[in-house]
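FAQ
Q: What does a multi-component entry look like?
A: The components come first, one per line:
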Amino acid sequence: MNIKEIQDEIVDEFSMFDDWMQRYEYIIDLGKNLPLIKDEFKTEDNIIKGCQSKVWLQGEQNDDRVVFTADSDAILTKGIIAILIRTFSNQKAADIIAADMGFIDEIGLKEHLSATRANGLVSMIKNIKMYALAFNAKNDATL
Amino acid sequence: MLDIQKIRADFPILSEKVNGKTLVYFDNGATSQKPQVVIDAISKYYQEINANIHRGVHTLSQLATDAYEISRGKIQNHINAKFSHEVLFTSGTTFGINLVANGFTSLLKEGDEVIVSALEHHSNIVPWQMLCERTRAVLKVIPMNEKGELIMEEYDKLLSDRTKIVTVNHISNALGTVNPIKEIISKAHAVGAAVLIDGAQAVPHLRPDVQALDCDFYVFSGHKMCGPTGVGILYGKEDWLNKLPPYQGGGDMIKEVTFEKTTYAGLPFKFEAGTPNIAGGIVLGTAIDYMNEIGFENIQAQELELLEYGTKRLLEIEGLNIVGTAENKTSVISFNIKGIHPYDIGTIVDKLGIAVRTGHHCAQPIMNHFNIPGTIRASFAFYNTKEEIDAMIEAIKKAVMMLS
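Then the predicted structure of the entire assembly, as tokens:
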């Protein structure tokens, strides 16, 4: 599936919930099921600044795709990362850079998260796009 | 005994709904809510007497100036300062600390020492670190014990003739510890050091007597004591304020300006450059009148009851650990629940209408000391109730169920 198709699927899933409790419970579940990041990647360098909780994000190139792994010490944050990873991991760098982020609003995540002091969600997306930009530039250079 | 329901009716925001739930506001340590008299006084100022102060000969300017200076007098009286010109209006606690730290630049030399405590807010750490960088003075820290109390024996050891200023908070924002400032001040004076007290977290709970304390500087913000944001007070002893150079240059702080040389105005104007927060300054007086009308003895009695009840109820929750258990503390409870990040709890209880603070509370060294990422902090004011504490307990239980 491409990024747009995955985003539509996620929006669909969230539209089934009647209230915020169910939505949060789902995010918590996603967080619990997020595949673990390798310990060697849980470094100070990989910590995303601007989050109330600690977030580690690691991007790697696998053929023409970018693969992301991540972790957080807070479960809600982990659930949100899980949504982002499902959307962006195993996609082409150029597609990640070009991706529209409107689906975040559609699933009602931003209204809940931007209220917290630091805009962690924005930082996460920025970091994902930065990885894609770096890999894209590297690929261009080797052509 | 206070009639809490009557008091609550003074605060319109307390009947607001948040996320569809009745608001339970337990983030008073960050800022207090405002009573109707304060809200009205702000409108009244702009509707009736708005004009720039200390400048015009016209009537409105006189009225505004009088109201501003009357407020200064109220604050002088409230904190028992010897002179009204020892009471400087600032934009808040942070500004006051920076003003003093900046003023000490020319008074320190390499090897001199500045003492802070392990319990400080970043605002009472960073300006002194910057001062030390400028002057090559050395920053020393009074350590704390596991209860979150300063270890006074260690303080004694830090003091010497190299100590030039000691700067500690009256009450810790993160843990609620009330520090033995009278002892801290007299011991600092014994070695010839000046003392600044950060009273930001104290003034909502008590009435400081700066002459009895004998502190050299006492700073606080209006917004934590029912007043508006953007206004605060720096009290300084006359001698010290005369010794310190001006912090900012501009209008209102001068005696005479020529391109060759400018002479400065006397106290307090030397430190009050530019058009101040006039409405804020006037209305801080209104807020102080309001709190004195309720009475600080009554406020303390109500808050102590909330602290005791809140502590007891919170400890009923399995795995809950209170951080900061000083013998002498105010109505602040910082806590963690085993295996759950404070941010997760804070987010869920917010959805249930409970406003608490989560995170490091701008006191990262304290969190590092306890080796935790942060805490959940419930800070109570005199207008809070036991029923609200019950609602918080229910919300936390629900959050724990969802998160574990």
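Q: Is there any commentary attached?
A: Sometimes. For this entry: The domain at 4-30+296-403 of chain B is CATH 3.90.1150.10 (Aspartate Aminotransferase, domain 1).
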